[in-house]
Amino acid sequence: MRLLLVALFTALILIAVPGSASAKACGVPQAKAVYETPEVQIYTSKDRLLACRRGGALSPRQVGWDYTDGMGTYEDGTVIDVLGGRWVWVVQSTSAAESADHSEYWFTDIVTAKRVTVTIEDEDGPAYEAVGLAGAIIVAGKDGVLALRPDGDVDLLGGKPTAFGLAAAGNRVYWQDVKGVAQTATVPLPRPEASRTPPRARTIGRCKPRPGARLLLHDGRFIYTRAGGKTWLCVNGRTRVAPAEPAADPSRLEPASVTWPDPYTYWLDAAGAPHVADGVR
Fold it and tell me: Where is the signal peptide (predicted)?
């Protein structure tokens, strides 16, 4: 179902940042990036948060702001995730001395240079929960559960007049209605793109990679690399084998990406009906 929600959500075509169309001209040394995956590198330049995609003839795309005037006004963009190698999810926070703080999500497709923005907090307080999928950002609140895509498509998944407890695994979304009854829906998503070979890992701050290591994720002070058949995590110069993470199970999950304080665990019965696990709130 396509909804017209001009007042709440906007789909914007980004203006490409001037630069070479060559992939070789895209990006910065790993140590200067703020976030990096095998497909995408994100960095700051002239108050802008930019993302470039490896292996494609694309100029860097703006995915947020990183600005301060030194007098109490700032715009801070923090990367939450890169999904499917092309969708960049950023929380953009704005603060000024004479106005209320404002936060919104920017969900940008760096291939098509389009994005959707969602206001999550303003002078009226928190507005929405959200989870990101490879191709859409899912929000839950007073308007129900919506799937918003950078190209402007908006799908109502359910949950009106209100919904909470949002969670997702794969393309399946879970939430609870106003009575606390678990609900679920699947979201059509684009076909996954082929994974890319991770780049050779370089020294980032105090983290020196092992010989032949490949970079899996650079997220601030957390550096994940792959070498010798193992995944390594370096934090502040200390490297250890990264703890194994269980694969997401669409029938039972405890998401870390829910923006509300409490995570929820859902499960599907034999008939496919969703339930909230007892004791998990």
Answer: 1-23
